[in-house]
Amino acid sequence: MQAFKSGVFAAVVASMMPVSGWAADITMNFGFGAPEASIYGQFASIFKSKVEEYTDGEIEVKLRCCNQISSEDEAFKAMQLGTVDGFVITSNNVSPHWPLMDVTVLPYVFQDTAHLERVVDGPVGDFMKQDLQAKTSVHLLSFGPALYRDFYNSVRAVNTIEDMQGLKIRVPKNEVMLATFEALGANPVPLAWSETPTALQTGTVDGGDNGASFIKDLKFYEFEPHLVILEHFVAMIPLFASDRFMKGLNDEQREEVIRAAADAGKEFRTQVQTTTEDVRTWLVEEGGMAITQPNKAAFIEATQSVRDEFAEKRGPEFQDLVKQIEAAAN
Question: Does domain 26-146+236-278 have CATH number 2.60.120.10?
Fold first, then answer.
């Protein structure tokens, strides 16, 4: 009996002692609005893999696709409230919460992908992360890959800017994007993303614009026969985390989550750059879309007024960021 009591006592003491290699039970519910196979899902999967690797499994990232935990339009607010841990949100949908994000939405603001990378990976990108967190509490962990938005419609081929006249175009609820399509002569219709596929399929709108992978993943080619390579907007898909989630981590875990996001963004950016042309080819050869590649000079000229107007309208801080982006082109 005494031996039994001693054994029980030893077991209790052992259970109270720290166990080497014990893994913390931390779960990050991470959402995005598109299917798992989409470009959003691919980015999220790389992030998940790196977080779990870098933290030795202390943090498990559970991916929640297809608006399971929030819609993209509501996710930023949910992160501010702490009800969502993390989300991938298209940059133009961040602007209502933090207007400075619109510097990245301005038409033709980036000359090429190398120019964009110098901006987001340099001092401008660092400032944007710090300012967004200070003003909203949300953490911008990675700007993600750059996606040139391709235009598509169900009415006609677009070979010149005149062909844009009168087309009803679905546009996110973003002032810059609405003004851009107005400058191009189209009739922009602001719609939330959740309403967009149905509006396109039923003909409520004539067309819209998305990255090539999105057009393929959402099967828009089935009812939008005309693909137009304008590259008018460079859409980024930043990766965010709530302040509540980040504050729940210890210093080392927080650093590893930030590192995982940065590495995932760079890795996936390279993948996207090499696959965009392949996807465009697929949309034509397999998806049946007819492709046009208009001379962009008239489109760039028509949208210069949008860049000037919004820089003036948004004030000195916005203007200064635009100047820094322009300077990074050299």
Answer: no
| Residue in 202, 204, 209, 201 with CA at minimum distance from that of residue 184 | 209
- How far does CA 317 lie from the centroid of its chain? 23
- What percentage of residues in the chain have a pLDDT greater than 90? 81
**With 50 as the cut, is the pLDDT of residue 7 above it?**
no
> What mean pLDDT comes out for the span 47-58?
97
Closest to 140 in 3D by CA, of 163, 124, 160: 124
For residues 104 and 110, give the distance between their C-alpha atoms in angstroms, rounded to a whole number: 8
Are the C-beta atoms of 229 and 150 separated by less than 8 Å?
A: yes
- Are 26-146+236-278 and 148-234+279-327 in the same CATH fold? yes
DSSP β-ladder status, 207-211 and 139-142: unpaired
Structure tokens at 106: 């301005």
Neighbours of 162 (CB within 10 A): 9
What residue ranges do the domains of the chain occupy? 26-146+236-278, 148-234+279-327
How many contiguous H segments (helices) and E segments (strands) does the chain have?
A: 12, 12
Q: What does the pLDDT look like over 75-123, one tens digit per residue?
A: 999 999 999 999 999 998 999 999 999 999 999 999 888 899 999 999 9
Q: What pLDDT shows up at residue 3?
A: 44
- Range 184-211 burial, b when 16+ CB lie within 10 A, else e: bebebbebebeebeebbeeeebbbbbbb
Confidence tier at 6 by pLDDT (50, 70, 90):
very low
d(CA 295, CA 175): 25
- Answer yes or no: CATH 3.40.470.10 is held by domain 148-234+279-327: no
